[in-house]
Amino acid sequence: MNFQSHPRFAVYFALLIIVVIFIPGRSLIAKNQILTGDVEAGRLIYLKGLTTNNQPIEAVTNQDVKVSGPEFACVKCHRLSGMGSSEGGKYVLPVTGPILLAPRELNRNRIFSKLFHEIRSPEFVTRMRQPRMRPAYTDESLARAIRSGVDPGDYTLDPVMPRYNLSDQDMANLVAYLKTLSVEHDPGIDSKIVHIATIVNDSSDPAARDAVLSTIRGYFDWFNLALANDLSKGNFSTYNHSDFVDSYRRWQLHVWTLHGTPDTWAEQLAKAYKDQPVFVLAGGFVNGLWSPIAQFCDKERMPCLFPNTDLPQTTNEENTYSFYFSRGLELEAEVLARYLDEKSPVPQTMVQISFTDPYGRIPAQAFATAVNQRNPSHRLESVEVSSKAAFTDVIDRINTRHGDIDALVIWPGEHTPEVISVLNKHLPDISVIALPSNALDSWQEQGNQAENERVIFTYPYELPTAYHPRAFRVRAWMRSNRIEITHPLLQFQTYYMLTLLDYGMRSMRGDFFRDYFSEFIESEAESNLNNGTHPTLGLGPGQRFASKGAYIMIPDQKNKVRAISRWIIP
Fold this sequence. Notes:
Oligomer: single chain
CATH architecture of the largest domain: 3-Layer(aba) Sandwich
Structural class: alpha/beta
Helix content: 25-40%
Shape: globular
Distance between the termini: 87 Å
Largest sheet: 7 strands, mixed
Strand order of the largest sheet: 12-11-13-14-15-16-17
CATH superfamily of the largest domain: Response regulator
Number of helices: 19
């Protein structure tokens, strides 16, 4: 009997077509129905949790909890790199293109950092060491996993992972993006060498610049010597490094020296990077704004670790590529505003003098904003000057105002020594005279050793009397490597940066992606690496400022300083 000629066959066939086309279900799974995905639209779903129609994604987690919005975007758990994470006893699997499109294997390198990142339960460790094997994902099986939580091996994924309700087009877009995620290693690294740059400029203090560079070079030499010793053992190491030997790279330092004004730095950086791409910027020390360098790093998606700067880029800072110790002079300005607002009696009339260079102008703007936000009833007079003569004239006029000023705030910028010399001769009779931390050395160097509680300094560092055992070990390391300690704060901050660089490079274990590196920096910044430069240092996902507060200090009679406030976080 010829079934195709049978009358009922035509009816059955028509019904089958209707079922395939019109019954709800997701056509990504139906043969010949896979849509072409838009990578950029998929990136929006991954990073922002927004669909093609600019609507928040919707999902169900823990079997019956409905969720939606950007807080449940893929990036929140799988991170920018797509390499996953581990938190609260949960192991978040990688979702990068190369990993999804290959059968799962037990990769000790890849799970090593997850195993030892924090204290784990026996159940977690067992799960990590015995992962469920699965075939490679296809577009269809990946769609099923995202929607239903079932992988290609028919294993059910953890119920914590949301099951997403995505349209066919949104699913195609997301799958297309995942295929591009962390596919190729980032520039600046090859099979033997990782190229790393640090940045200085020709107008920075030569002695301070040399102190920073000597610390960096000393650490690079020490690291490479230890690496060569390790690699000399072939594939065996008493330190259990055998499985990781292929992920080691020798560090090659490139010192990029910037010339001229900051508006020319972007072009200089672009040329240096074109001549020799680097994987990461290791700190740096420049005189002036850091923003041109930060913008360059963001453009190239290249991490920059903890430069020594008082003028970091502070706008739209989350998930950018520069990591900082603090917000510098802007932070000091906001801390001072809070201190004065909480002081008893509260100063009602304040005068602020700032120089026109960035070191004066930026904190002055931050202080004025903070004062207005905290208490608009305060009277704040702001005066800008551009020379020692102009500053002297303002101080002379202030000295003629008898008792109507409660606080004087000075941002001396690059004219600090001249400002201190003027104050030595014409210190106004005002109950509070405030200066930033970068003026403290000049104050003490010019002989101001007598205790004077009227002159206060913001101080975003650890107290000199605090005890940090690690500081002694760092000093011993520097002595053993013949590094002279001439600028302790700069050199200790630089050493902290180098230990984070070391940790991040080791932790990637061959997955050399800059976003992955940044994620390790975020998680490790608060560990026991602080050399005593700050009371606490810590970051979270997307955070870029590790220290959040400052003290108010006064010089004492022993040419040191003592705190007159708690640690203030504005």
